[in-house]
Amino acid sequence: MTTAQFNCQYCTASLLGKKYVLKDDNPYCVSCYNHIFSNYCEKCKEPIESDSKDLCYKDRHWHEGCFKCTKCNHSLVEKPFAAKDERLLCTECFSNECSSKCFHCKRTIMPGSRKMEFKGNYWHETCFVCEHCRQPIGAKPLISKDSGNYCVPCFEKEFAPYCNFCKKVITSGGITFHDQLWHKECFLCSGCRKELCEEEFMSRDDYPFCLDCYNHLCAKKCAACTKPITGLRGAKFICFQDRQWHSECFNCGKCSVSLVGEGFLTQNKEIFCRKCGSGVDTDI
Q: What stretches of the chain show up as alpha helix (H) in DSSP?
């Protein structure tokens, strides 16, 4: 290129003695270069001219003086930053705005630090502690009660009920009998030691018995049929002096008519209706 030909590639004005900019080996006067090739700043919307530094991030451009945190307005030049919803934020503002807050101390859980999550809330690892012993729970099993979290040993010590039989902690389920608690496998018949958790049972002197043992050991016998009187499922029975009868067995010893709710007479161990008893010597 000769001196006579040293002109702006766009407007053809002579560049002799003037500032110019080379673009793809072609010279441009400063005015044409700024007009054709300058990027526009994301913040101030003005062109970033050739005498200014153009800072670029993901096809977006800023003047050096405009490249700032959109929240605190501190310069981000040569500093770490993050982007959220197309906004540039310094690391501190990004952490305050976007990072989780500790449920205990309410402070930001900084990116890169370990956080604990439980029931939709987050904790610093050092803040996620047992409510009783104040030791970090970490990934160990825990039990939540009211507004606190407890390691298993502390929860068992403070809150868990104990089995009336084996005296060990009942962690789930259990049987309640006379306001006392048992493990299901510890709630046994006082006679044969059979498990009663899914069985019908009777009580005698605050001790549980299966039906067989209760009938054999505890139940009174019907004076008529000699079978046990249990009162199970609302069954009714009749008592007179030191004897008992099933209601269906309380019948006249001669005509077999039911005496339930009726007057009756006795002779020795027999009971009679008034009609049948009028011809015998009776006790009442």
A: 30-37, 91-98, 152-158, 211-213, 274-277
Return d(Cα 206, Cα 44) in angstroms, integer: 87
**What are residue 221's DSSP bridge partners?**
228
Residue 17 CB partners (closer than 8 Å, separation 6+): none
Place of tokens 């009028």: 278
- Run of H or E including 175: strand 175-177
CA-CA distance, 102 to 110, in Å (whole number)?
10
pTM of the predicted model over 0.70? no
Longest Cα separation, the chain? 160
Query: DSSP label at 38?
Result: P
User: What tokens appear for 103 in the block?
Assistant: 């449920």
Which residues fall within 8 angstroms of residue 112, CB to CB, at 6 or more apart?
Answer: none
**The token pair that represents 33 in the structure block:** 């270069």
C-alpha 149/C-alpha 142 separation (Å) is 7
Residue with tokens 């080379």: 22
Condensed to tens digits (0 to 9), the pLDDT of residues 201-226 reads 887 888 888 888 887 777 788 888 87
Closest CA to 213 of 237, 187, 188: 188
Residue written as tokens 């077999």? Answer: 256
